Amino acid sequence: MLTRYLKLYYLFCKQNLKVMMEYRMDFLLGVLSVMLQQFAGIFFVKIVFDHIHQLNGWTFYEILFIYGIAATGRSIHHIFFDNLWTLGWQYIRPGKFDRLLIRPINPLFHFIADRLQQDGFGQLFIGIIVISTAMPHLDISWGVLEFFILIVMIIASGFIFVAINLFFATLSFWMVDSLPIVWTIFNLSDFARYPLTIYHKGIRHLLTWIIPYGFTAFYPAAYFIEGSGFQKLALLTPVVAIVSCVVAYWFWNKGLKAFTSTGS
Amino acid sequence: MRKYIEFARVQMQVHAAYSAWFWANTFSVLLRMLVIYFFWKAVYSSRTEIEGLPFDSMITYIIIAMFLQMFVSGVGRELAHTIKDGNVAIELMRPYHLITRLIAMDIGDKIIHFIRGALPLGILAFIFMDITLPTTWQGGLLFLLSALMGIWIGTFFDLLIAILAFWTINLWGLEVMKEAVISFFSGALVPLILFPEWFQTVSLFLPFQAMVYVPVAIYTGILTGTEAWLALGSQVFWAVLLFVLLRVLWSIAIKKVTIFGG
């Protein structure tokens, strides 16, 4: 069962890669554009820190580290799960989703595997560069264990992005296209780029317990920052990721059941 | 002329039909204002001014710049998609100038955006976020003039970039790249006076600062007197140059369409 899906995913990827290679200029343009976009955000932080030394007790490299984890986690979402954005307007509205339903594989798998988003690689590069720039400046000695935890945290961060998008994309089964909602909720992740301690309590709780974007960047990063006061909470990151995915998948299945194509 | 006004009017009605996007936009802008507010509050928690700007000037600059940035891009996306799906060939046969039609639609779009989006949100910001009025009434008038110029420059730049859709299919990448460059160089994120010297010099020779920085700097009193008038002069220069460039590039690109047609 699992090997069959892995093999299928490989085949899907191969097709996607062929498309990518066909349009090489566009591949470069996509990667470059995302890198530039991320770079603009980092440059902004740098400019601000040219004039201040600390943001609410957080140093430049600590902020950079948070930023890097957010970018890398998001890149997992961007490269492999980008199709989630298109559920409403490219599948359900034109009636293409029915096509997936008659195939002998899990429709969610098919839907996700339908696209590999090359543009996300730019995000990945920038994320890794930013993290490795910030790492030596943190008050922590990097051993094998720390690296392992960092990778787990980043993967968990990516899957939290995925789960949240999946959850709200699923609303499309009832309302045809939920993109405005998905997009609005996604914008909440902007909060997570900075230490959550600078925000009002209400916002902090919202981003921790209801829409857990806090666990996509700030909490995982805080684990590695001595005296941040969030090290225990940070350990919850993988748990939050698993719970979010389970809830989102449950909701997806519910949506699937309720789904009647646009034609009927 | 009448037909173009009609296009603008229809575009306004189209807008009213998509209320889900309207609320999504409104809510997203509110969120961004919140992030901005708390971020700068934290920045100013241990000081009273940065480069001579106290907190209320800074937050005024950032918020006004954010609003203005929403208006500097336009119908580029529309044009790019028309090109990509080939409809441009049909559009070219219709009894109007495609670019002029798009600009008319854009004007309609922006008017309705201003009334339904920017205005109420702006009033909210004034009430809750320590935003100040322009320092002088001349400054206020000059700001209006300069902001219109900035929007004009942004619109033409947007269309100019969209024409590149004749050569690439990655429209999303094109758009993201354009947005990144604009927020980078236009001063939409922070006042350009906070940037390093060399960066300020570079951006002086680019059209981007004319889109956002110049009008908002006039509003907040960073640019006054002769400096403000000089900046306005450079806006006129860019507006004319981009207008001409757009016409030239468009006529080159159109030839490509006929080549595609065989």
Percent in helix of chain B: over 70%
The rough form of chain A would be described as globular
Query: How would the global form of chain B be characterised?
Result: globular
Any idea what the radius of gyration of chain A is?
Answer: 19 Å
Across the major sheet of chain B, the strand order is 1-2
Gyration radius of chain B, rounded: 19 Å
The number of helical runs of chain A is: 14
Low-confidence stretches of chain B: none
Largest sheet of chain A: none
Transmembrane segments (chain B): 20-40, 52-72, 111-129, 141-169, 181-199, 228-250
Pfam families (chain B): ABC2_membrane_6
Keywords (chain B): Membrane, Transmembrane, Transmembrane helix
InterPro entries (chain B): ABC-2_transporter-like
How would you characterize this protein structure?
The complex is a heterodimer of chains A (264) and B (262). Chain A is an all-alpha fold. Chain A has one domain (2-258). Chain A contains 14 helices and no strands. In chain A, helix 2 (24-49) runs parallel beside helix 7 and helix 8 packs parallel to helix 14 (237-258). The relative contact order of chain A is 0.14. The model of chain A has no long low-confidence stretch (mean pLDDT 89). Chain B has helices at residues 2-17, 19-43, 55-72, 76-84, 88-93, 98-128, 137-162, 171-185, 197-204, 213-220, 225-261, and strands at 49-50, 53-54. The longest helix of chain B is centred in the C-terminal third of the chain and has 37 residues, at 225-261. Chain B has one domain (2-261). Chain B contains eleven helices and two strands. Chain B starts with a helix and ends with a helix. In chain B, helix 3 (55-72) packs antiparallel against helix 10 (213-220), helix 4 (76-84) packs parallel to helix 7 and helix 7 packs antiparallel against helix 10 (213-220). The chains are: A mainly alpha (264), B mainly alpha (262).
